[in-house]
Amino acid sequence: MTQFIKDYVSSCQQCSRNKNIHHKKFGLLKPLPNPNRPWICLSMDFITQLPLSNSFDSIPVIVDRFSKMVVFIPTMSSITSLYFSHLFIKNIFSKLFLPSSIVSDRGPLFVSSFWTNLFQQLKISRDLSTAYHLETDGQTERVNQILEQYLCMYFSYHQDDWNTWLPLAEFDYNNSDHSSTKKSPFSLFMEGIHNLTQFKSLKILLLESYQQKSNQYSKMSRENLKLP
């Protein structure tokens, strides 16, 4: 009986013409590759057309695909690609890492010649999402929704103080367990840093060992040169 009802409803011509389709996308899922450490593979998007708050009306949302850690930056929708590169260096590169790849949409900033040349000089792979397919970077789109909900609940009635809530929203998101990783972005980020530090410590030990052997060989060579 249940199957009969499903078949009848799915074959209703009136419903097919007037209701939105909610089935999953056809074809095979091609997820983005999983990075092996924090802040080397990022996704980036803009929330725009916000009420003015201390002259800001936009938020670049940057997400680390490994730890799910986020960075929210208040800015203006009229910024140039040069100014945005300064924001990126100030808020991402100087505090975290230089990424190897960034996923973004095809907005004017991301396809500009300056941004393209900058990526080429820094050896960063630029992965542009497919037009009108938000699921290409669904993770960042979901973060946008959460941030907008947070601001709607906490900013003032006049909607002119949302920029003061951004640091708290960023901390709250990064300090909460993520549904996919079951850990907070902060904890995964610190674990990644710890592992990277251990790797660097190993490299230092190897260099020290190499230096000791090099000194021994140099000493032997000097002694051998003194022989008749």
UniProtKB/TrEMBL annotation:
GO BP annotations listed: DNA integration
Source organism phylogeny: Eukaryota, Fungi, Dikarya, Basidiomycota, Pucciniomycotina
A single Gene Ontology CC term: nucleus
Signal sequence annotation: none
Organism of derivation: Austropuccinia psidii MF-1
Record's protein name: Integrase catalytic domain-containing protein
All copies of domain Integrase catalytic, residue ranges: 34-193
InterPro entries membership: Integrase_cat-core, Retrovirus_Pol_polyprotein, RNaseH-like_sf, RNaseH_sf
Molecular function, one GO term: RNA binding
Swiss-Prot/TrEMBL keywords: RNA-binding
